[in-house]
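Technical note accompanying the year-one report. For the benefit of new consortium partners, we illustrate the data format agreed upon in the data management plan: each record pairs a sequence with a structure-token string. No post-processing was applied to the example shown here.
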Amino acid sequence: MKKRILVICGDQYHPSQDVMAGLAAMNDGELDFTQAPRGSVDFLTEAFDAVVLAKLNVTSADDSSPWMTTQLDDQLEALIANGVGLLVVHAGTVGYSSSPKLRRITGGSFIQHPEPCTVRLEPTNRSSVGTAPFEVWDEHYFVETDPEIEVFLESVSVHGRQPAGWLNRHQDGTICVLTPGHFAEVWQDTNFHELLRFGIGSVLNA
């Protein structure tokens, strides 16, 4: 039976078509990706097995008002606590400082990034992640993280080294965070697909 994945994506810097095309390209037919309705906030339900969050905290590409309310912050936290998985990718780490429950369960958040550059992504355990180190042209995210997270990927550029992929757990749910993913080319990279498979598999198999 296919796993149902809700995808929350689409903002002025990260087009939803890039995210959805990347997820489609890595899909082996076992996952059913459903994009959340544009501008809607009435979509978080327990009918989904996992949620992918890959957008800034804005309503849409042409509406910069926050979409994450206190009520939605509570609702998402409750879903994760009850076993719905959460994969946060790139922009999903940005702009949620006013969402304390989401920040706590993700175990980290965006601080800043330099201009796009060559970023080397290095799994800390290749056998579990499924890909060798590889390079992409991307935004190198600098993040703050909590001590209890489990880092499985690091990013390296001329600007330094940062955690780039980690796992966290919240009651019955598992959260995975991946910081790469600004450009469409990254979403179409086969090595990045392996990271997405690892992340989705991790949050589904809690």
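Partners are asked to follow this layout when depositing records. The chain has one domain: 3-108+164-204.
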